[in-house]
Amino acid sequence: MHHRPRSHVHRQRFPLTAVLLVLMAVTATLLTGAGPAAAAGPACVKPAPRTDDTIHIQGCLSDTRKKPPAPVPDVKINVEDSTGKVVGKGTSNASGVFDVALPGSSIDNLGKTFTIRIDKASLPEGAALRNPKQVALKVSLKLDSDVFVAFPIGKETSTETGVAVQALQLAVGGLVFALLLAMASLGLSMIFGTTGLTNFAHGELVTFGALVAYGVDALPGTISVAGVNVTVAVAIAVAVVVSGVFGWVNDVALWRPLRRHGTGLVAMMVVSIGLSILLRSVFQYFAGAGTHQYSQFSSPKPYHWGSVLVTPKDIFVVLFSATVLLLVTVALQRTKLGKATRAVADNTALSAASGINVDRVISVVWIVGTALAGLSGVLLGMTQGFDYQVGFKLLLLMFAATVLGGLGTAWGAIVGALVIGLFVEVSTLIVPAELKFVGALVVLIIVLLIRPQGLLGRAQRVG
């Protein structure tokens, strides 16, 4: 292991940059699990990377009766197809992780349903499933990515307590997901508000940020400051900067010439669909179709907040994302550039006539919007891993959040994302996980039937 030389950075004059740098520096401490919940010995260590075109069933077993939770090794896991035939077997390793490969290529297994069954007899002495009846889980493969499942191990609880705790646990995960969705949706809303463009390639901007950070993270060696591994923190900073530059290139090389030639919004929307397909193909070519994890994927021991488990990653993502969203929205409200951005969004022609450089404002919006999308992709990859389609999978939810909150409004995109994100996760208490996105879209339809302008949008006369 060696240390990369650190370059000198000039003192920043803007509080936004200073706050972001401080928050990213905290990342290393949170991700390495420093604190009262950390313990010796690795847990939930990610499986070795691979390049084969297969789908794996993965999971981690930990006994939550112990503080901190201890990995549960040597537990047998069987995977059965829809006929009940065992098609794969695995055993949890010393860190509690099991990894079972499904037979055939990924395309062969799409659309199929598999049952993951745990052998209760192989559990160590004293260990028990939290829900003794939940010895099997069914998953339907809709995507060509690995599937992660969990069998909670701990004290048996009553149904009422279990449902309440499960709802709180899902709400924690929903808040994390909602804030990441809010950052991506805010960028989409800002671009739509100033240009009128419905950008179907915005999902690929999310994926771009995740891939840039992964490229930095995959470089040989580690980046350390005062003995603390800050590789992922540096990867986040690089991804945000490179994503912003990529957004500026998008505008200067493609969208600005189209605007100057008077290209209609429908035609530009079609162009964005083509750009989305192109970028997704490029991502797949260079990054492959497998699921990627960052080097600090191994989750540190969670904190116990009553019966709810919260990981340091969750805490970091919530605090960091909320701070970024607050700073961006305050900048839109208070700064001169933010006021110019809102003016362009309200009336482009009048803004140009009053002396505002519209092209410059739109370029800044593209830089900020793409940087937010890239940051969302990085943090999403930190929490659950990613593949070359991670942004594409979120695109429909981003549109739903933007429309639900109110088209072209910054706070609307954030509120819409919070509603969608929390509902998507918590609704799995009632509906199957495979249908959770459908439920969010049903909520969108109902709200728009009652309030067509969205939650925070303004009703306008047409004609």
Features:
single chain, 463 residues, alpha+beta, Immunoglobulin-like, ABC transporter involved in vitamin B12 uptake, BtuC, 2 domains, 4-stranded antiparallel β-sheet, 52% helix
Write the layout of secondary structure elements.
Layout: H1 15-31, E1 56-60, E2 62-63, E3 70-71, E4 76-80, E5 86-91, E6 97-101, H2 106-109, E7 113-118, E8 136-140, E9 147-149, H3 159-195, H4 202-217, E10 224-225, E11 228-229, H5 231-260, H6 265-287, E12 303-305, E13 308-310, H7 312-334, H8 336-346, H9 348-353, H10 358-384, H11 390-405, H12 410-426, H13 436-450
Parallel strand pairs: 1-9
Antiparallel strand pairs: 1-6, 2-3, 4-5, 4-7, 7-8, 10-11, 12-13
Helix pairs in contact: 1-5, 1-7, 3-7, 3-8, 3-10, 3-11, 3-12, 4-5, 4-6, 4-10, 4-11, 5-10, 7-8, 7-10, 8-10, 11-12, 11-13, 12-13
Task: Explain what this protein looks like in three dimensions.
It is built from 13 helices and 13 strands. With 463 residues, the protein is of the alpha+beta class. A hairpin with a 2-residue loop joins β12 (303-305) and β13.
CATH topology of the largest domain: ABC transporter involved in vitamin B12 uptake, BtuC
Amino- and carboxy-terminal Cα gap: 67 Å
Main CATH class of the largest domain: Mainly Alpha
CATH architectural label of the largest domain: Orthogonal Bundle
What does the average pLDDT come to?
81
In short:
The chain is of the alpha+beta class. The protein has 13 helices and 13 strands. A 4-stranded antiparallel sheet has the order 5-4-7-8, with no helix packed on it. A 3-stranded mixed sheet has the order 6-1-9, with no helix packed on it. A two-stranded antiparallel ribbon has the order 2-3.
